[in-house]
Amino acid sequence: MNIKSEFAEILFEALGGKVDKSKLILMIEHPKFANLGDLAFPCFELAKLFRKPPQKIAHELVQVMKTPLFEKVEVVGSYLNVFLHKEKVTQSVIEQVIAQKGHYGNLSIGTNKVMTIDYSSPNIAKPFSMGHLRSTVIGNSLALISEKSGFNVLRINHLGDWGTQFGKLIVAYKLWGDEEEVKQQPIKELLKLYVRFHEEAHNSPQLEDDARAWFKRLENADSGAVALWEWFRDESLQEFAKIYDLMGIHFDSYNGEAFYNDKMDKVVKILEELDLLQESEGAQIVSLEGLPPCLIKKSDGTTLYATRDLAAAIYRQEAYQFDQSLYVVGNEQTLHFKQLFALLDKMGYKWQQGMKHVAFGMMLKDGKKMSTRKGKVVLLEEVLNEAISLALEDIKQKNPNLGDKEEIARQVGTGAVIFHDLKNFRQNDIEFSLEDMLKFEGETGPYVQYSHARASSLLRKGNFTAKNAAIHIPDEAAWSIIMILNGFPETINKSLEEYDPSQIAKYVIELARAFNKYYGAVRILDDVDLKQQRLTLVYAVKIVLKEGLRLLGLKAPEEM
Ligand code: ARG
Fold this sequence. Notes:
single chain, alpha/beta, 22 helices, binds arginine
């Protein structure tokens, strides 16, 4: 068992079960100075509940703090300060890591529960922008973290493959498009047409009406409109697939907005039956308490993004019976999701309580939002390829004899880009900087990958096998690593609760740093007596680094 859980367990018993274990775990602190112990528990908060001075509570608790993992427990003021039994704790931690390997840190919170995660969800006929990178990598990591926590996860790519923009694109293609050119470079050409549409519509507003008319024809399954739409969609999907392959990302469903085209009537009917629909200037709306009304149908009878999301939510509940349903979508859509959830609530669907908008900040360029319409985008595929070729150069220089350089360069290059995003708390805006993204030192993915490769190389040189593991603390310097390893399960728990992969990114950096410090301070292979214990520690570090990287969507090469 994890030490903090064990500590919380003892406190729980001692307090007569009056304070939740999960709350107790959160109350446990790490003292700033080592001479104050390894863990500390403040009793202030308990004073009110037990109507006793906190010092008194501390003195009572200290009597029952008995576990082989604790060497001694002291009362200092209102604190219980715990000094861990280093040898015993080391044995317990290392034993768990080695026995459980990639399963170390698995949780059971999500057992028998279903979670859908809607992420990436790019828009057809537009380039996969850096903006969509955020949703893709955050969503992918959350899917992995949730799976590790026991959830049955369904990954959904809610493609933006429907809407008035397809009317615009059809108009633009019919006016200025060239079939051959589109076939050559589909996304670039389609983007050009889209940008041109907006430029020209500025002076000829009639174009907007034409676009609406074409979208209406599309919704009515006009064969000419549908054929163009399908073509644009297929070409786009092929381009997106290249990016997902590069990053090793997959989905269980590509049911995008168009999928709900024939499922919206039913939803509109339910709204009618519930007497929720109102007419407003020819459009159909539902009014919501404390929020702007939700637009369900425009005056020309066409549906909207919100209508499709409403149908999608109901469909997903029917198809998957989700307990939790996440939407990994930027901050700009906060109002949209508030309206969606409020509307479902108004319709009487209790399951909407399991829905959550996992919002994130913007990817800025020169402090400004990137916009597809003005053609101001950075193409993700170009960024990934640039990162991969830089990684390849680096490898050729540093390790010319390495086998399969291309594959490792792919792992390191994409790792740099993914980690650069995930190390930031998702709500923060990120300034796009290719230079920062491609740095391989400091707080980066390649730095962690490199630390993992170093651990692997030590194990090879020392002929280590798990069978000859020696589970003891080799030296004082190893202690900080043991404590970090011990903290892995709770880091996963926190990242799950806060939908925040950056906790894991920070964790692997901390572990890699501690390991590199140890590597610099101790000659791991030199001391015959201690070698096996030290390698066992290195082996545990390797397991946890690899698993941490995996949860972020990064590979951990054995050599690089
Ligand atoms: N395609 C949308 C966009 O790029 C994101 C879709 C998010 N998912 C959803 N169910 N609304 O802005």
